[in-house]
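FAQ
Q: What does a multi-component entry look like?
A: The components come first, one per line:
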Amino acid sequence: MDIDIQKGMALIRGIPFYPTVQSKAKYALLDISLSALAAAFEEVAKRVPEFQAEIANWNDGRRFAVGVLPKGPYITLEKRGDMTHYLGKGLLSPDVTFLFKNLDSGVLVFTGLMSSHQAVAECRVLVKGNISYAMELNRALAIVQTYLFPGIILKRIFKEPPKLSLGQLITKGKVYVALLPALIRQMV
Amino acid sequence: MIPNYYQFYCPVKILSGQKAMSNIPFEMELLGCKKAMVVTDKGVVDAGLIDIVKTAFADSDREIGYIFDEVPQDSSNRIVNKLAKLFVKEKCDCFIAVGGGSSMDTAKGANVVVSEGSDDLLKFQGVENIIKDLKPMIAIPTTAGTGSEVTKAAVVYNEEENVKMAFLSDKLYPDVAVIDPRMTLSLPPKMTAATGMDALTHAIEAYTCLQKNPIDDVFAKVAIDLIRRYLVRATSNGKDKEARIGMANAALLAGIAFSNSNVGMVHSLAHASGSVCHVPHGVANAILLPWVLEYNLDKIPEYIAGISGALGSSVEYLEPRDQAQVTISLVRNLLTRLNQVSGLPTRLSDAGVTEDDLPAIAQAAINDGAHTYNPKDLTYEVALETLKKAF
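Then the predicted structure of the entire assembly, as tokens:
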């Protein structure tokens, strides 16, 4: 059975333009994932008190970006007041940036197959900027992921999966409901 | 035991042993260099160690262009930029760093400024942000030690922004590391103990943290074995050359291990203790190591158990958890021995930390990048609890 699958994969890889098609598909997947992450950052900032507490000490105007080398996609957000605002696609003068070295590394993390700390441990991610800003961003990102991913994925991607209270689960539901309109707003 | 994916890189040429420094002019020739900028601190000069470096050039056509001895305890961007300007002015073509971590970091920082043609170090901080090839660098450690002679990291304090800038890049590896037993003979007992425990922490964290890999495991285990054999000997009798070269090699091997496998929670807490209370790095590592091993125990008992043999355990249990407890008690025994021989502190309260400092240290620790690689999460509450236990 495994041999048949491998033979099938080898056949597919031999199709002309397959690498280009595969690359474009990965790019599209990451583009949507990063857009969803950006929307999640905004919606979580509006509703989750522990996220607001985490970014309370950040300087106003601090910008952070997440993206994939060498050609994107990228998203940049900015802290204003007690919220994080999505500025748009691209690297827009961020103070700290998390960059995946390639599309494959990005796909592993954004499909929930690998945790971000495991990606760092496997040298799949670069960090540009102040390391303490990066650690603060990492904690904020962990909170966003808690409210973005279902429990089964959280068990895989966290060293110690968070246990949400009933109130937090309700908030998570509200984030889910708000996410799709937020995503559509971004695309329009 | 084989990780899903790992990377290993160590391009440093290592010269170790009797009269190793005599080979420096020849190595400079191989690197295409004629005139060296020696980077060191006043303590190394006063100990007469730079005179040993100078004798290496006595019968050679290579020369020392300038001896910069203003390296402070923690490297700063002001000093780095001053050094870089001197490097260009004196028309040097390579760096020779002689000293501990600060001298190495200062030389690495100045190398970035000179080679990238920019004095704004802020834009190079982070991971793999240095693009251009750097000038050749030869590293001669005088402690055993930080392992900076074989690492890809440098930390420079930014005086204007009041932040510590961390740089990690494959470009930062020195070209040559020279381990000469003469260079650590004069290290006082307490410093020998503290820097030796720093090396032990590097090796143990490299072996037990998330980025571990089979190549670094070998370096880490041999380092631990050498430390077990030689650290107390070197601390008790500084003139024991075999012990000194053994410890210098242990620090080097531990440095190779952690440069690829990284460190963990011990270093986050130690960095924070250093920045808040100025606890020397090796002292902080020594005090915190057994407590962090206890904290990590339930997640990685087999890894902690795996180093008990290198630490000298003659007892073997079937259960990894029990064997791991043996490892932790061996580390504690070593710390107690070093305390008896050299006065190395065993508690944070003996190292100048007050109870009021603990919250600030915990807050600084969670913002330190090292704990990303720790098997268990480091939250503010966990950091505070660990610090209280070690207090």
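Q: Is there any commentary attached?
A: Sometimes. For this entry: Chain B has a mean pLDDT of 94.
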